[in-house]
Design goal:
7 helices; globular; single chain; 167 residues; five-stranded parallel sheet; alpha/beta
Amino acid sequence: MSSSQQASAQALRDYASGDSLRPVSAPVRFLVVDDNQELAEDLCELLEIDGATAEVAPDAERALERVSEQAFVAVFTDLRLPGRNGVELLEELRRRGYQLPVVLVTAFADDQVLERARLAGALEVLSKPIDIERWLELARALPGLARARLRGLDDERLSSVVGAGSS
């Protein structure tokens, strides 16, 4: 495990041990895509503490299977995955007609990757170690964002749902 992965995992454990979490307004389901099982499970646990449900997919192929089998409000995906990367996962989701919000998480973002992610429709790209407050802020806003996308609201109005811009 890299030092950034260790820092993210420790931040998640530290945050989860506090009592400042507020539940989301209604049960929602998230998909967390990451080949780092421990980190993915920690992220799912935070979502569950916050009142949502979540499951892990270890790679893009499994994520695509799960999205075809189950309704998710959003996908949080690592950029670097075995096989297809997170941007390729996002592109494939769009190609298949899924418009659910996708948040990329990475320790390896450069300008080219960030631009490709934005062009593919990523809601946001978060850096590792993960800013837990921002991550949970997004998770809490995503149910409203998913509903807005289903209603066909434009991207400018959608960005007001989540507040702060991309990292």
